[in-house]
Amino acid sequence: MPMSSETTKLPFKIKLSYSMGQIGDSLGYNMYFFFFLFFLTDYVGVPPALAGTISLVAILWDAVFDPVVGHISDNMRSKYGRRRPLMIMAALPYSIFAFLIFNSISLGTQATFIYFLIMTILFWSSYKFFVIPYFALGAELTNDFNERTTLRAWSSVGLYVAVMVASALPPYLLALFEKSGMSGQLSWRIIGGIFAVGILLSAFICWHFTRGKEIYKHEEQKNNTMKKSSLVKALAQIVKLKPTKFLAGSVFFWAVASTMAMGGLIYLMKYNLGYGAERQSLYFIINSLVCIVWIVFINKTARHFDKKHVYACFLGIGSLGLLLFSMTGFPSFAILLIFCVVFCLGDSTYWTLYYSMMYDICELDEYVNDSRREGVVTAVMSFSQKLGAACATWITGMLLAFGGYEGAIENQSESAHQMILYVNTLMPGIFGSLAVLAILFYPITKKRFYSMMTALHAKRSHKKYSEEDFKDML
């Protein structure tokens, strides 16, 4: 299968350095989705429906802001490239607001709502200026169909290292600090500070060691022949691309499933299963290790078969597992671990392959529209992901309230227990099934992508080419 000489393989150092940026992204992201709702309901005293609304508004703002940041990143011109200046400028405020959102204050219900709404909006805004350029940078480091999967596999390992830290460390530290006599509010403040430092360090390492490694940077500076367009036009052109619609739909639905299933675990383990901090931390560590093992298998499978088919198959298994486990009630820790293995196959596949599939749309954009807009392509997918996550946190808060959950009491009602179970299993399983259905219509395959790249290389050189082998992508 022909492939142009422009294909770029990546050395170990770059893959490792790029994955550090994923740690910076995922420490704040997962700390938020694992514990922010729980922190508001159980330590600040915000009613669950109101806490869910704070997340909904803040994350919707983040989602709407995605295309703006992507467009700014695509049109930035500097000797340091289009992505890395924004990444380093955003790293410090991102880490500061990651600290501030876990600071409890007592200002009354209305003032507390306003405070946390402002802090979360600032948190997600600064996060966005780091993460959109970071993900777009991945498409500029290599244009090889399989190498992009491997790069994302490395990043996914970084993601689950961060997930392990962000999920297992807070319950352990919280129990440790409270046992020593600290208040829960002060304990969360210290935990927020620890994570802020981790975000800043990992973001700097990624920024520093990926300097000058973009494959398109120098060519664009010497002769920028790409067409420029307004944000509205860029969005319209990218959304019009056939693969964008189906990948964005799948990303949205699994974001709902993943956020509900993972964010609800702290409620499930504390109230339904009665697990203390040590058992909770143990589960989250096992969860992350299982995901890392799955990533190795997913990467090898996706290099031999089409990413699309691997993605659909493994998300399907994860979704089926969620639906089946809604009927078990998790009678033992062993059953919870089986749930972990099945769900993590789908979730690890999502976080590993959807970015790699997203990168392939960037070359299609260049072929169809004569523009390289990795930032806006990334923003469209990030918008879908954040919209799904926002809906998930709002739905979770509303369902908990409907089930009669009260954060101020230790023993929840039977209806609250049942709703917590459904938030972790049945509802995510339904949304996960919709994610699988959407991706079945995604048209980019390895054969079609390589044929398009050959045509794109010919088009750049003003030579003749044919669209016959990849017309289904257009």
Automatic annotation (TrEMBL):
GO terms for biological process: carbohydrate transport; sodium ion transport. The chain crosses the membrane at residues 46-65, 86-107, 113-137, 157-174, 186-207, 246-269, 281-298, 310-327, 333-353, 387-405, 425-444. Keywords: Membrane, Transmembrane, Transmembrane helix. InterPro entries: MFS_2, MFS_trans_sf, Na/Gal_symport. GO terms for cellular component: plasma membrane. It holds the Pfam family MFS_2. One of its GO terms (molecular function) is symporter activity. Gene3D superfamilies: MFS general substrate transporter like domains. This is MFS transporter. It comes from Brochothrix thermosphacta.
